[in-house]
Specification:
Bound molecules: 2-oxoadipic acid, magnesium ion
CATH architecture: Alpha-Beta Complex
Order of helices and strands: HHEHEEEEHEHEEEEHEEEE
Number of strands: 14
CATH class: Alpha Beta
CATH topology: Fumarylacetoacetate hydrolase, domain 2
Helix content: 25-40%
CATH superfamily: Fumarylacetoacetase-like, C-terminal domain
Strand content: 25-35%
Length: about 260
């Protein structure tokens, strides 16, 4: 049940999208709308998506967030959420992100998949997902909450497109048959120093469970995951703050490295 009017949803979408596009932080929207609910929060996110598409931006994938206990603990929340990925979020492997285009970026190591069959909920399971995934690819996400000091509650962060801002994929692509998503290890290095390590199982016990949850959440809005969708399954480790001059490199077991520079 929504509680906000269409006008307020449109206003909050514009407010949060402007903060994203112009890189300034804002107070969390639940301070002004404490009674807003989940549906309101996703309505705002979908309105931001609609605004971007209307301007010609392409939506090139989906992501899950807050799917690992490390992330939930770091952010003080307990429920995974989803968001969309716009074309201009994508950065080339070994590419550079200009830090002044962002507010207070952090990086996360993630496992991404590309589906080859449509997935729909309710009732989508790990088995359905494993059957629908074509390939697995390493990804690093740059998140950049539009909220002051990265402090938010779940509804505020859902409305803010789950802090999405940039991402990079690279390394080697593998067929799902050739990867054990659960034991797949990752090592994150910043300027040559190991800052975080983890394995796929940190993501809801199995990264495919994250995709199943996405299909089931989308079903609540009568949406499906079309075949050919790129999906980031969520940060494996806690997110790490980056500064200008930092060089981030994440190594994935059998899948090579993904790197990104901040200037
Ligand atoms: C929300 C986005 C979380 C992930 O992978 O867990 C996310 C945030 O922590 O700002 O992208
Ligand atoms: Mg993420």
């Amino acid at each position: 049940m929504s509680t906000l009017t269409k006008e307020v949803v449109a206003e909050l979408a514009e407010h949060l999208e402007n903060a994203e596009l112009k890189a300034y932080d804002v107070t969390k929207i639940t301070d002004d709308y404490p009674d807003m609910d989940w549906e309101d929060a996703y309505d705002i996110q979908w309105e931001i998506r609609r605004r971007k598409e209307q301007r010609g931006t392409k939506i090139i994938g989906l992501k899950m967030g807050l799917t690992s206990y490390a992330k939930m603990e770091q952010m003080g929340v307990d429920t995974p959420i989803y968001a969309f990925l716009a074309d201009y979020f994508s950065v080339l492997d070994a590419g550079t992100v200009k830090i002044d285009e962002l507010i207070h970026p952090k990086v996360e190591a993630e496992i991404a998949v590309i589906t080859k069959k449509e997935l729909s909920g309710p009732g989508c399971t790990v088995a359905h997902v494993l059957d629908a995934i074509g390939s697995v690819v390493p990804a690093v996400e740059v998140i950049d909450s539009r909220y002051e000091n990265f402090r938010f509650d779940l509804k505020s962060v859902v409305a803010d497109n789950a802090s999405s801002s940039r991402f990079v994929t690279g390394g080697n692509l593998k067929r799902i048959e050739d990867v054990d998503l659960k034991t797949l290890g990752v090592v994150m290095e910043i300027n040559g120093e190991v800052v975080a390590t983890g394995a796929g199982a940190s993501v809801l016990g199995h990264p495919a469970a994250s995709v199943a949850m996405l299909a089931n959440m989308l079903a609540e809005r009568n949406e499906v995951i079309p075949a050919g969708t790129f999906i980031m399954t969520g940060g494996i480790t806690a997110a790490v703050t980056v500064n200008a001059g930092d060089s981030v490199c994440v190594r994935y077991q059998d899948l090579g490295c993904v790197s990104i520079q901040f200037k």
